[in-house]
């Protein structure tokens, strides 16, 4: 990823926009297009199609080669080894299609829902700051399992718009994710500190804001970007929530976006979290964001007894005066 920021800036300068879709939608679009090579930047960095060298401006192609993010595809074509997604005004590198590698860096509709969830949850804090009109100390912000860094960047943008000063720590167990995050944050103009390791064990101290969009599927291959562990994929989310609640500064918030396998109309993640939340003394709210995601997973035996997989959002606030 050396010099990859230059590629992202060059692509951004063209006005590039691309909404990254689910893997199944991506597969269907590619099947519909057949074997025709890509001719536009959306083809090359969005749909990740092989392309002829003449389809890309020589300067951009040179930058891609310098950054090591282009490979040969067959005897005459080239292919980008990364994709680029747009979210708000920002662009994000993420892994090439299909994301089958153990260290793949995810970006998709869940990322967009996560960013919207963050923006909505932070509005009361923005309103409070604008009303009090004081200059707060820098806020310690932690994005647990940051992936592409989209969540942390969205949080930094929302807080900065309210006149707050976020000091953002991006955490992931995957070193490639931190490489992508570093480039994405640099181009977005958001200073970040990188922390490689397993969730909150990789960082010290308390935080004013902890955000996380952990993997929540029971993935047969146990790929890090998809596998949420035991209990139908909710184990990792439950652990991150429990660790985060213990590391909130006074007035600090946890914003957790995850998915839950609903069984016989009941939400086992909420049932597991409720006693932890009540014991923490935090004020909290919990809501379904999307009642039905990753429906294709229900064809797998591990999910044979569930109703659906729902995307949910948990907001927990520790008592005390927020920064």
| Number of contiguous helices | 10
Strand order of the largest sheet: 7-6-5-8-9-11-10
CATH topology call of the largest domain: Rossmann fold
Count of folded domains: 2
Instruction: Outline the biggest β-sheet.
Output: 7 strands, mixed
In CATH, what is the homologous superfamily of the largest domain?
A: Vaccinia Virus protein VP39
Strand content: 15-25%
Structural class by sheet pairing and helices: alpha/beta
Low-confidence stretches: none
Look at the structure and give the mean pLDDT. 95
**Residues in helices, as a percent range:** 25-40%
Give the CA-based shape: globular
Which CATH class of the largest domain is shown? Alpha Beta
N to C succession of SSEs: HHHHEEEEHEHEHEEHHEHEE
The value of Rg in angstroms is 20 Å
Q: What's the total number of strands?
A: 11
End-to-end CA span: 36 Å
Can I get a quick summary?
The protein has helices spanning 4-13, 23-33, 41-46, 58-67, 109-132, 150-161, 175-188, 230-233, 235-245, 268-280; strands at residues 70-73, 77-80, 82-87, 90-95, 139-144, 166-172, 192-196, 207-212, 248-262, 283-290, 308-317. By secondary structure, the chain is α/β, with parallel strands linked by helices.
Question: How would you describe this structure to a colleague?
Answer:
By secondary structure, the chain is α/β, with parallel strands linked by helices. It folds into 2 domains: 4-95, no CATH class; 109-317, Rossmann fold. The protein is built from 10 helices and 11 strands. The longest helix is centred in the middle third of the chain and has 24 residues, at 109-132. The model has no long low-confidence stretch (mean pLDDT 95).
């Amino acid at each position: 990823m050396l010099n990859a920021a230059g590629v992202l800036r060059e692509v951004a300068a063209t006005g590039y926009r691309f909404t990254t879709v689910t893997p199944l939608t991506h597969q269907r679009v590619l099947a519909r297009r057949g074997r025709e090579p890509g001719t536009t930047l959306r083809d090359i960095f969005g749909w990740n199609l092989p392309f002829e060298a003449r389809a890309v401006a020589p300067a951009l192609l040179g930058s891609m080669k310098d950054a090591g993010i282009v490979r040969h595809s067959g005897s005459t074509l080239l292919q980008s080894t990364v994709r680029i997604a747009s979210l708000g005004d920002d662009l994000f590198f993420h892994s090439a299609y299909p994301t089958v590698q153990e260290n793949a860096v995810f970006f998709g509709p869940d990322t967009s829902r996560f960013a919207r969830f963050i923006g909505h949850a932070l509005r009361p804090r923005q309103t409070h700051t604008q009303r009090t009109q004081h200059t707060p100390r820098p806020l310690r912000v932690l994005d647990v399992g940051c992936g592409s860094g989209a969540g942390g960047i969205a949080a930094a943008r929302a807080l900065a718009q309210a006149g707050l000063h976020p000091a953002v720590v991006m955490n992931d167990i995957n070193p490639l994710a931190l490489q992508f995050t570093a480039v994405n944050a640099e181009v977005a103009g958001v200073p970040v500190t990188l922390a490689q390791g397993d969730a909150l064990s990789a960082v010290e101290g308390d935080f004013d804001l902890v955000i996380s969009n952990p993997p929540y599927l029971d993935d047969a291959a146990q790929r890090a970007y998809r596998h949420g562990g035991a209990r139908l994929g909710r184990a990792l989310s439950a652990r991150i929530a429990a660790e985060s609640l213990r590391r909130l500064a006074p007035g600090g918030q946890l914003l957790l976006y995850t998915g839950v396998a609903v069984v016989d109309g009941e939400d086992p993640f909420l049932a597991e979290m409720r006693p932890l939340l009540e014991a923490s003394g935090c004020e909290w709210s919990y809501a379904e964001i999307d009642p039905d995601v990753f429906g294709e997973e229900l064809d797998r035996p591990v999910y044979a007894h569930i109703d659906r997989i729902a995307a949910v959002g948990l907001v927990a606030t520790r008592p005390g005066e927020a920064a």
